[in-house]
Design brief:
By secondary structure, the chain is α/β, with parallel strands linked by helices. The protein has two helices and five strands, in the order ββββαβα. The protein has one domain: Transcription Regulator spoIIAA. Strands 1-2-5 form a three-stranded parallel beta sheet, with helices on one face. The structure holds iron/sulfur cluster (SF4).
Length: 98
């Protein structure tokens, strides 16, 4: 479990305990559920592909072991443009193969 340049508290499902955790978005684009204050102090934004890819590279180097899964926080990563998301997933596939 590695956090690279993670802004704020990390929230991840228990099943992702051993995943490389990378912050692809910051905050939640909705941020209005009355029962949730996870991202209430973060202004939503999608990080640049360059930043995310750099974190993936650093995370892979620092892990010291094979990475089997990657988890993208914070909220709603699929809000990213489809072409960017595809580029990112292709990059992850390559990274996991190395
Ligand atoms: S993270 Fe989920 S539960 Fe929390 S405000 Fe956003 S949509 Fe609602």
């Amino acid at each position: 479990m590695i956090y690279i340049r993670y802004q704020g508290t990390v929230y991840r499902p228990p099943s992702e305990f051993d995943s490389l955790i990378i912050q692809a978005t910051i905050g939640c684009p909705h941020n209005k559920c009355s029962f949730c204050n996870m991202y209430s102090e973060r202004h939503f934004r999608i990080r640049s592909l360059e930043e995310i890819m750099k974190d993936l590279e650093i995370g892979k180097c620092q892990s010291g072991k094979d990475i089997e899964s990657i988890f993208f926080g914070d909220g709603n990563t699929i809000l990213m443009k489809t072409k960017d998301l595809l580029k990112l997933l292709d990059y992850c596939k390559e990274l996991l193969r190395e």
